[in-house]
Amino acid sequence: MSAGARLAKRIVIEGAGWILVLVGLAALVLPGPGLLALFAGVALLSSQYEWAQRRLGPVKKAAMRTAADSVSSAFRISVSVVLALGLIAVGLVWGLHPPAPSWWPVAERWWLLGGWGAGASLILSGLIALGTIIYSYLNFRDQPAGTDPAERVGAADHTAP
């Protein structure tokens, strides 16, 4: 591989890694799979930086534990699914941009700013949330108490086909 191709590959990997880290940090307080995005970003950066390799294990463990906790009861699963579907519904309404209701206190131009751009990001967030709920359910739902989910996923990743 030429030096230019290696540089381009490094720029793409680092750029994607840092974007995922920033999105993950934002999603820790906003709707979205924050720890999973953070884990994906650190995983990408670990191919380039030793400091990221050292932090990959703890971030993976926290992400997998959170994924397992999210499907630990039928109530949590139900609430998560309802909220994810709610995000999708709000995204559709936002994109369709209905007229401002009579109770809206300011000018109509301030109603649902962003149009389909904002609506699409809400829909995408809802779809990602549903995907992570399904992933967590399939991988962690029947996990015995006290089992470390990161070890379970890691073991499944290294088994022979």
Structural overview:
- It contains 6 helices and no strands.
- With 161 residues, it is mostly helical.
- The longest helix is centred in the C-terminal third of the chain and has 26 residues, at 115-140.
- It starts with a helix and ends with a helix.
- The model is unreliable at 154-161 (pLDDT under 50).
Beta strand count: 0
Radius of gyration, in angstroms, nearest whole number:
20 Å
Mean pLDDT across residues: 83
By secondary-structure content and strand pairing, the structural class works out as mainly alpha
SSE series: HHHHHH
Which ranges are low-confidence, i.e. pLDDT below 50, for 5 or more consecutive residues? 154-161
End-to-end span in angstroms? 31 Å
Approximate helicity band: over 70%
Shape designation: flat
Biggest β-sheet strands, sense, barrel? none
Into which percentage range does the β-strand content fall? Answer: under 5%
What is the tally of helical segments? 6
Characterize this entry briefly.
With 161 residues, this protein is mainly α. The chain has helices at residues 3-27, 34-46, 50-70, 74-96, 115-140, 149-157.
Output the keywords.
161 residues; mainly alpha; 6 helices
Give me the secondary-structure topology.
Layout lengths: L2 H25 L6 H13 L3 H21 L3 H23 L18 H26 L8 H9 L4
